[in-house]
Amino acid sequence: MSRNDRFLKACRRESTDCTPIWLMRQAGRFMASYRKARERYSLLEMFQTPELAAEITLQPILAFEFDAAIIFADILLPLEGMGIKLEFAEKEGPQIHNPVRTAAEVTALRVRDPDEALAYVMKALRLVRAEIEGKVPLIGFAGAPFTLAGYLIEGGSSRNFLRTKGMMYANPELWNELMRKLAELISGFLKAQVRAGAQAVQLFDSWVGCLSPADYRDYVLPHTQSIFESLSGSRVPAIHFGTGTADLLPLMRQAGGDVLGVDWRTHLDIAWERIGTGTGIQGNLDPVSLLAPRSLMLERAEEILDRIDHRPGHIFNLGHGVLPPTSEDSVKALVDFVHGYR
């Protein structure tokens, strides 16, 4: 057990000495030390070089009093092992050069052993775990089936997911075959991360908020649920995160997870009422708040903490990832404020 086990205790809805905090995308982006490394290496080189990925994972742990580390990786990395040609284009985001839109293309996708296909992630996890053992716990993660399917079908980011929903509605059998393969891929990847040293995992369903509750129930819930069920024997906490999910929260709770991550569009106390008492909750400061005047940022953080009122099971986080222009001083001030809140 780590000496600082606030995060793991909160995942189990146990009392803690103060509210634990970590930030999505805390490894990279906003830190000067990360940008210096980024000048020398491409994103894929950084992801696929375990020593570099471990170094970047550790940068925020050395600089701030975060209560957990999260491995430096990307949700799309497992797709390469399926035969997908992936590129992280400068200023354009991830691009899929062979999108998956036909039955033949779905059939061609292969689910490989994650210890082989993603050995570099596993090595990075082991390196980080060795460095932080007895200090803070380590989080592994993966993308959820719907979000990965969105990238696969659209070929990159999308505003309206026309092609994705088109397959869902017009060819549900093909959609379910794709989602089953992705669920198998993700389950294996998360379990491999646990074997490599992850002490908690987070499932990112970043784009699932584009769906109605009925669509989520019919086309997504069973596949996401199968992932959490597969993790039940791993004995590590699982966090289930999405954005724009205010009306999906009860269904996401049904899909699974020990902790539900909520974005900034829903008050946490209201979200907790919707999902019930048997689940922890994570969030949910607007990432843009860290670019606001310090007093306003702390006012917004205090409002979140006041609404929770020290209820066990809360992990402070942003409602999505840290934005690149965020100053390190703002991050430090936020961490100190959350830890000092009484």
Identify the notable features of this structure and list them briefly:
342 residues, TIM Barrel, alpha/beta, single chain, 48% helix
Describe, in plain words, how this protein is organized in 3D.
With 342 residues, the chain is of the alpha/beta class. It has one domain: TIM Barrel. The protein is 48% helix and 10% strand. The chain is built from 17 helices and 9 strands. It has helices at residues 6-11, 32-38, 43-48, 50-63, 77-80, 103-108, 114-117, 119-132, 145-154, 162-170, 172-196, 213-219, 221-230, 249-255, 268-275, 294-308, 328-340; strands spanning 69-70, 86-89, 93-96, 138-143, 200-205, 238-242, 259-261, 280-282, 314-315. The strands form 2 sheets. Strands 1-4-5-6-7-8-9 form a 7-stranded parallel beta sheet. A two-stranded antiparallel sheet has the order 2-3. A hairpin with a 3-residue loop joins strand 2 (86-89) and strand 3. It starts with 5 loop residues before the first helix and ends with a helix. The model has no long low-confidence stretch (mean pLDDT 96).
